[in-house]
Design brief:
By secondary structure, the chain is α/β, with parallel strands linked by helices. The chain has helices spanning 53-65, 85-102, 122-139, 149-154, 158-171, 198-211, 226-235, 250-255, 273-282, 290-298, 302-308, 316-326, 345-357, 364-377, and strands at 29-32, 69-72, 106-110, 142-145, 176-181, 216-222, 241-244, 263-266. Helix 12 (316-326) crosses helix 13 (345-357).
Length: 383
């Protein structure tokens, strides 16, 4: 029997992956994974996305090996910022095949980004969602209904959101995760759920969930407002999880309080995977002091996360990919859409310093050498 607001963790593989760690038992934890660009592809920032499939899939196996679930084709994978729908669809197919092979949990983003930019008819938006939902369900992934730029532009008010999401929830074959991504991550999502007033938007969001009992596994909240997330969490119907997407306050939200806790679906768990997974497993024991030990392990990572996600927050992916390169997960610092240029060299240098202080690099000398090379290449030989 779980306490009010506390929901049991979702299904996990029977045990650890070969050579890996078991998934946490007390929390369901997904890392939103980045993609590795193909540095030899002859493309342009606005051209078709070209991925290094071997390195991209190897990184997903790295996340699974630490007991984390993979949230695929999400904001961290540059959906709408370099990763187009054809590449995202192939990414979902390939990651699903890997997930089946290793028994790794997989949830996949469902959106409307196959539509052209700008305003679209609601019928076309619904059709785009249905196409992507069908693909994710066909390959065995758990759907995450992502916020849609096209819907934000076309909806006339809360009723349009209730009607469209209701249609999708009625046809979903398994419970879905609803995703509320704030405008700090994507300015085009201002006023989502039909109102710029967050209290009104929250009421509409909760109404949609209440209208369709049993069809929503959980909600991913990415508003960077811990108090608002806790208030929303306490209003969720029984059995609906809250997956924190708050990269500023995740330790306190995952730890929870006497009325409940948040599960996790976080972009920052991409670079933090080994440390974050070990920290969350501390909560499984439910022994006295477990929460304090969890906070002692994870609280020191917040400075790095806040640095990576500083405004303009949508460019956090650049720091995430930098850290993957410095850690040896990929051989280059190139991103789809040319997004490696989206952060300044001082910002990237500080990200390296903070990550090194946390012991995140398997080979600190390699990380330092790569950082020196990057700085020297751009005229900062003395840095």
């Amino acid at each position: 029997m779980t306490a009010p607001g506390r929901t049991a963790a979702g299904p996990h593989p029977a045990g650890p992956l070969p050579g890996g760690y078991p998934p946490p038992a007390s929390r369901t934890v997904f890392a939103a994974a980045h993609v590795v660009a193909d540095p030899q592809a002859d493309t342009t920032p606005d051209g078709p996305a070209a991925l290094d499939w071997d390195a991209t899939l190897a990184f997903r196996r790295h996340l699974w090996s630490h007991g984390l679930g993979v949230a695929e084709a999400m904001d961290t994978a540059q959906r709408g910022m370099g990763l187009d729908w054809p590449a995202a669809a192939e990414l979902i197919r390939r990651s699903a095949a890997e997930a089946r092979a290793v028994g790794g949990p997989l949830a996949c983003g469902v959106g409307t980004d196959q539509l052209p930019p700008g305003k679209a008819a609601l019928a076309d938006i619904r059709g785009a969602y249905e196409e992507q939902l069908g693909l994710v369900e066909d390959v065995g992934g758990q759907p995450i209904l992502m916020a849609s730029r096209q819907l934000a532009a076309a909806a006339r008010g809360p009723a349009d959101y209730r009607e469209l999401y209701g249609h999708l929830l009625r046809q979903a074959r398994r419970p879905v995760i609803l995703h509320w991504l704030g405008p700090m991550f994507d300015p085009a999502l201002e006023g989502y759920w039909g109102s710029a007033d967050l209290d009104t938007a929250t009421d509409t969001f909760l109404d949609i969930i209440a209208d369709h009992p049993g069809t929503v596994d959980g909600v991913k909240v990415s508003l960077l407002d811990a108090g608002r997330e806790v208030a929303l969490r306490r209003r969720l119907p029984a059995g609906v999880r809250c997956y924190t997407g708050d990269d500023f306050h995740y330790p306190e939200l995952i730890a929870g309080d006497d009325q409940g806790f948040s599960h996790a679906l976080l972009g920052v768990f991409d670079p933090l995977a080994p440390l974050a997974a070990a920290a969350v497993r501390l909560l499984d024991t439910e022994r006295p002091g477990a929460t304090a030990d969890f906070r002692a392990a994870l609280d020191p990572t917040v400075a790095l996360s806040r640095h990576l996600f500083r405004a303009p927050t949508r460019f956090y992916k650049t720091g995430v990919v930098l850290l993957a390169w410095l850690a040896g997960h990929q051989s280059h610092f190139t991103m789809v859409g040319g997004l490696q240029s989206a952060r300044s060299l001082p910002h990237l240098r500080r990200a390296h310093e903070l990550a090194a202080g946390l012991g995140l690099f398997p080979d600190p000398d390699l990380a330092a050498a790569r950082m020196r090379t990057l700085l020297a290449l751009h005229g900062m030989e003395d840095a």
